[in-house]
């Protein structure tokens, strides 16, 4: 219970295994009403409500919010995502996520997957992994043909107006993703 209180009211079977408590205690606490079972392996204190961002994160801790979902989390888009987009390492077996509604899974080679991971508060205040703004902008430009044109252009305009942005880091990610010329073209017009 103390562990759950310290972690936004959430405890997983992975957490109890890590701290050396048998998983059966989670089941017993759920049966007695001390915890509420959200889904297999994820429990919350009574009165705690997980948002979908947190549910997906607890279900798959390696999933990093990206593309349109990351734009929303960084306030670079005012559109609530219809589908939550996450990126996973290319070698990751994501079959357990196929049943999750409204989830789009992208895969990347390890060096691209690992670049730019940070955390952010979800709308309900849960800390979830997301790509930083610069990596998100590069991902969006790289995949612009598969995204709404208005979302892409609005995100680029909002990013260019942000007082806190790292253009050096943006160009490093652009080089990694091999889209340097596209990024230069967009930002020569916007900046």
Q: How many individual helices?
A: 10
Largest beta sheet: what is the strand line-up? 1-3-2
Mean pLDDT: 92
How many structural units, i.e. domains? 2
Q: Which sheet architecture does the biggest sheet show?
A: 3 strands, antiparallel
Q: In terms of per-residue confidence, which ranges show pLDDT below 50 for 5 or more consecutive residues?
A: none
Write the layout of secondary structure elements.
Elements: H1 2-6, E1 10-12, H2 13-18, H3 24-32, E2 36-39, E3 42-44, H4 52-59, E4 64-65, H5 67-73, E5 84-89, E6 103-108, H6 110-114, E7 117-121, E8 127-131, H7 133-142, H8 149-161, H9 167-176, H10 180-190
Parallel strand pairs: 5-6
Antiparallel strand pairs: 1-3, 2-3, 4-5, 7-8
List descriptors.
3-stranded mixed beta sheet; Arc Repressor Mutant, subunit A; 191 residues; 10 helices; alpha+beta; 2 domains; 3-stranded antiparallel beta sheet; single chain; 8 strands
How would you portray this structure in words?
This protein has 191 residues and is α+β, with helices and mostly antiparallel strands. The chain folds into two domains: 2-49, Arc Repressor Mutant, subunit A, CATH 1.10.10; 53-190, no CATH class. Helix content is 44%, strand content 18%. It is built from ten helices and eight strands. It has helices spanning 2-6, 13-18, 24-32, 52-59, 67-73, 110-114, 133-142, 149-161, 167-176, 180-190, and strands at residues 10-12, 36-39, 42-44, 64-65, 84-89, 103-108, 117-121, 127-131. The protein has a three-stranded antiparallel beta sheet with strand order 1-3-2, sandwiched between helices. A three-stranded mixed beta sheet has the order 4-5-6. The longest helix is centred in the last third of the chain and has 13 residues, at 149-161. It is elongated and about 60 Å long. The mean pLDDT is 92.
